[in-house]
Amino acid sequence: MPLYKDQFSESHDFPRREGPDKTLVIASTPRCGSHMLGHTLHQAGSFGFPLEYANPVNLKEWKRRIETESTERVIRELTQRRTSPNGVFGIKLHYTHINVLGGFDRVQSLFPDAHYVLLSRKGILKQAVSLAIARQTGVWIVGQEPKNDNPPQYRFEQIERCLREVILDNASWRYTLAANGCRYIEMDFDSVRKSLGTSVQTIADFVGVQLDDSQTQEEHVTSRQGSSLNDEWVAQFVRDFENSRRELISPDPGLKRRLLTKVRKMLSAG
């Protein structure tokens, strides 16, 4: 994944402080609208700037800039720079970032008593298609340069893998947050997109943040990436799936064991 260079701009830093009083974690999966939500919350001015600081590519660059090999040191520096004046720090975490930070016990240690917003999409096939396209092009955010000049190619197997991955990561987030007794709410991408102001207020009420009317704007601060190509691929996938005669969900107990093992490793890593 290419660097999201704007993330590192000092213009996004708040006045330096020792650390946050509260942490908001956007618990997400790729292409679920978390970039839009993070920028909307940043625009409100009371939730820090929730970005993918734990993405391996971004984390490596933060380590280079801060001149450290310590993930903990990076997080501590970020909480001092990116905590908004009301004491709230925000971060976006995909489920795969849990391992990057050293397991969920470590996440809880780095962000004690955090508030989690589990963001997902009802149109999960559209999300899988969007993920497949982003992986081919390298364009995850409007404005990024594609990694090559080749147009994306429809690949049934890739979309199917993305679909299963997103479904598993959503389920893993729900399991992890529930099993650890975390405070969390669930929000849907389409609802957030259609009513930004109400969504920001819902999160503010959940975290315990006071907002005025100027902080709950309805104007989008990011651009939509989807195109007719996404819709074409969704329709093609449905046709191909109908013709493939595949099993819906495998009853194989071995698969169930492997999925449980993956979740347990996420919880106990580090």
Short description:
The chain is an alpha/beta fold. It has helices spanning 34-44, 56-66, 71-81, 97-100, 104-110, 124-137, 156-179, 189-194, 196-207, 228-244, 253-268, and strands at 22-28, 88-94, 115-120, 183-188.
Describe this entry's structure for a reader:
With 270 residues, this protein is of the alpha/beta class. The chain is built from eleven helices and four strands. The protein has a four-stranded parallel β-sheet with strand order 2-1-3-4, with helices on both faces. The radius of gyration is 19 Å and the shape is globular. It starts with 21 loop residues before the first strand and ends with a helix. The mean pLDDT is 88.
Over all CA atoms, what is the radius of gyration? 19 Å
Give the % helix: 40-55%
Distance linking N and C termini: 25 Å
What order do the SSEs take from the amino end to the carboxyl end, as H and E? Answer: EHHHEHHEHHEHHHH
pLDDT < 50 runs, ≥5 residues: none
Structural class: alpha/beta
Helix segment tally: 11
Kindly report the spatial arrangement of strands forming the biggest sheet.
Answer: 2-1-3-4
Mean pLDDT metric: 88
Number of strands: 4
Principal-axis shape? globular
Sheet-strand content, in percent, reads 5-15%
Q: Biggest β-sheet, characterized? A: 4 strands, parallel
